[in-house]
């Protein structure tokens, strides 16, 4: 029995990187099509698998999917399924954010961070395209970085186009399996290429009509980095729908709120109407951002 890790899946074929470092195209054994979660993709990038080679020695069949250490998931677009797993067995998740061409909303950022935190995946924010900044955008980025650093999330500023500060990102990737995610057009593939130029990933353009990115990455794929790490490039995400969260779990996925919960008068405080709420007090003192709190309310009101 051979072992490996899933590095790409096109639906019909799954590319596995063996322990020896070779790539082999595999099919998924029938019974695993209903494995685990109700998901559009029962096997995900980053899954550790066991497989057997076929008689031709050039293709294989996946016979077992190892239990995942973690995974990051969102609500599937296909309503007949429940979830879509972006990737599994991650050491870190990076959300690539742009303040223009296209604009990333704080609601999108917060939903991604809630999911990563809820599934025990450390997360960071990378602000890309700083080469486009005027004074207004620079001030906006400074405000957002202050909010998210206060919450506990590392933030970076880069220009994939010019190469500004790319070495800082490269240093954080060393020896880890990391996910790059975000809207189409934020420069995920361009940033990966700036980090390791020989990968030469296809990059896209921005629609001048809608100022939104055009999809250039069709399937998620894992790439090996020269520093010993792995990076997963994902297709652009338009919306990030939360799944498998209960209402009383949401505030615990906002680190700045989770830290204040022990000081609330009630252990089951929802931070909405209860007297003696430390989070509501934090809003008044500035320890909790009003933008983050409004995102919390939006997510809370979406949950059944």
Can you tell me about this structure?
Mean pLDDT is 88; it is low at 206-213. 36% of the residues are buried. The termini are far apart. With 304 residues, this protein is of the alpha/beta class. The protein has a 6-stranded mixed β-sheet, sandwiched between helices. A 5-stranded mixed β-barrel has the order 1-2-3-5-4. It has a two-stranded antiparallel sheet with strand order 6-7. Helix content is 25%, strand content 23%. The radius of gyration is 20 Å and the shape is globular. Helix 1 (106-118) crosses helix 8. The chain contains 8 helices and 13 strands.
Coarse morphology = globular
Helix/strand order: EEEEEEEEHEHEHEHEEHHHH
Q: Biggest β-sheet: count, sense, barrel?
A: 6 strands, mixed
* Structure annotation, total helices: 8
Radius of gyration: 20 Å
Strand content: 15-25%
Strand order of the largest sheet: 10-9-8-11-13-12
* Class by SSE composition: alpha/beta
Distance between the termini: 44 Å
Tell me the quaternary state: single chain
Mean pLDDT: 88
Ranges where pLDDT stays below 50 over 5 or more residues in a row are 206-213
Helical content, roughly? 10-25%
Number of strand segments: 13
